[in-house]
Amino acid sequence: MERRPRVALIFTGGTIDSVGVDRLDLAFYIEAGKRLEDGELVARVPELASIADVEEIPFRRLPSQSIKDQDLFDLVALIHQIFDEDRADGVVITHGTNTLEETAYFLHLTVKRDRPVVIVGAMRPSSAISADGYLNLLSGVRVAGAPQSRGMGVLVVLNDTIHSARDVTKTATYRVETFQGRDLGPLGYADNDGRVLFYHRPLRPHTTETEFDLAGVDGLPRVDIVVSYLGADGVMIDAAVAAGARGIVSAGTGAGRPTPAEDAALDRAKAAGTVVVQGTRVGSGRTVTSPGLKRKGWSAADNLQPWKARILLALGLTRTSDVDEIQRMFDTY
After folding, report:
1. Rounded Cα distance, 257 and 246, in Å
2. Looking at 143, 176, 209, which one is the last position of a domain?
3. What is the DSSP letter of 40?
4. What is the reported pTM?
5. What's the rounded Cα separation, in Å, for the pair 173 and 197?
6. What does the DSSP 8-state code read for residue 284?
């Protein structure tokens, strides 16, 4: 008889285990301040036992917008511990959707094991009519336990769809199909017949293939994001430098265009030793290394969303502040 996969579950909170005031509370449930008790979410999905041996691993439960760098460091350490002790073939992490993609990309760059790590969430609370979290959890466990998920990097699974952590972003405030890989699409599906199907592999290095090892790293340098808009001046950029930012991601208009006042402030930031990465506020598409960007000594974010560019820049700055090396990282990861 074939051994069932062993899957460790780490619960960090979010909509998936939130409880609203009634079954139609689809928007204001966070204000109710109520969550399922430890073990209750798993107990509500007894079908999990038919597809994997599941073990809940204690961690702190937080609204995803409350997660800080130290929580990410601790999460990486816990994942390493689980795999090093051979307690699981794969890990599933439940997470609030607001910052899910940032945690996923951080883990995608820093987890130094090739066993599957899958992040799931929900767009409707556990108490809602047609709550999506139960099936998302089941699908996540399926994917984490599937042999073909090994070596695929960190995966995000919601709405039956498997995305690479690098490519996925939240695109709508309430829709269950909110997570999309706008430029590159999904990797595959956890489909309705119970099969886990991959149609693509991520080609950019991740997990065991990256240069980012948290061993000996105490924390991340400050990196701020400044979003451009009509008439924006340089006040926010100057404030970031004054606050000690070692890097700034400029989320410019269009293909990556700050206003003239922001442009001047970013030049001042660069002269003060702050690394500048030019991204875009547009929801998809690349910012490219133009001749002008090269002359300025700025880097380009490729097609990373600004908040993901911030994560890569912060990790890059733990190794170097050389602009060419930072650009190599954005071209690589």
Report:
1. 21
2. 209
3. H
4. 0.97
5. 27
6. S
